[in-house]
Amino acid sequence: LSPPGDSYGVLPRPCRALVLLNPQSGSGRALDDFQAVVQPMLAEADITTTVFVTERAHHAHEKVRDEDLSQWDTLVVMSGDGLLFEVVNGLMERPDWKEAMKKPLCILPGGSGNALAASINYYAGYDHVAKKKLLTNCTFILCKGLYTQMDLVSLSTASGKRFFSFLGFGWGFISDVDIDSEKYRWLGSARFTLGTLQCLAKLRVYQGRLSYLPVAAEQGGSPAPRDAQAP
Question: What GO terms are given for molecular function (predicted)?
Answer without folding.
Answer: ATP binding; sphingosine kinase activity
